[in-house]
Amino acid sequence: MRKTSLFMLPICLMLASQGCIIVDHEHPGCVGDACYEEPGEISFWWAFELYDGQTTDWCNVADVSRVDIVIYNSYGDPEFEALDRPCGDMGAIIDNFWPGTYEMQLVGICPTGYVTHEGWWEFEVYSGRNELGELVLDYLGDCP
Fold this sequence. Notes:
mainly beta; 2 helices; 2 domains; elongated; Immunoglobulin-like
């Protein structure tokens, strides 16, 4: 038994009771426990609700030519934006998200530029791969 460890015990208990802030010096903007987490990536594919309630992942059947993707952070600010993505991409893999809660909006746009489909999803990102699966956009109306 070392005398220094008994001497340091009250000091450690005092510091622990007051709390502390962890600062990651490799990532200077990072404060808190999340500093030790690695960023995550999300992957998903889209499908579309049709006028009769059925779903399809075929863009031409749903009459969708482009998809807008906007992901908002927990403060409601856009964190990622990809507008006018070809619908034929069928989905996306997006990386470099810090772990946390996000909300995503997908908008399906027909060849004339009219919004025919839309969907909103809230999801959690964890370090590593995050598979969101198939996201079905709601039918809003026909393409004029």
